[in-house]
Amino acid sequence: MSENSIFMQLTQLLDKNNAKYRVMEHPTAGKSEEVAKIRGTQLGQGAKGLVCHVKGNGIRQHVLAILPADKQADLSKVAIAIGGTRASLASPKEVDELTQCVFGAIPPFSFHPNLKLIADPLLFERFEELAFNAGTLERSIILNTEDYQRIAAPTLVEFIRIEEN
Description:
Elements: H1 3-16, E1 21-25, H2 32-39, E2 47-56, E3 59-68, H3 75-82, E4 86-89, H4 92-99, E5 115-119, E6 129-136, E7 139-144, H5 145-152, E8 155-156
Parallel strand pairs: 3-5, 5-8
Antiparallel strand pairs: 1-7, 2-3, 2-4, 6-7
GO molecular function, one term: aminoacyl-tRNA deacylase activity
InterPro entries: PROXY, YbaK/aa-tRNA-synt-asso_dom_sf, YbaK/aa-tRNA-synth-assoc-dom
Pfam families: tRNA_edit
């Protein structure tokens, strides 16, 4: 599957569900801060996707964990929420197999039956729109936050790392 077919799957899903969104073509940007500037969005509007592998307690589960781009994930919280004891980031090979996307271009939707979708509730509390790369580093979708939650229906899990001052 190509990055273009992921984009097609996304737009077909959003259109079928009458989502309010827009597509933006832009130069490749490697960091969340750079792409937010190019999009004209706040960093916290970015929906960052981490593909994790949860193990322990007889659990072996891949998870796509979605959080605001201005926050860091606490993978131990992801593991506990899924019922495992530990979680790690998936290998580039696993990411490719499960998402058909390169790192940094993973949309906040799971199209693979073995990839469980979770999202931190903070993602839905601050902005009316979320922004994310749409299967490629050169194309973004800016989507109504309520439409994202309704269509993707992620399991809500608090897993943002608490910053200590």
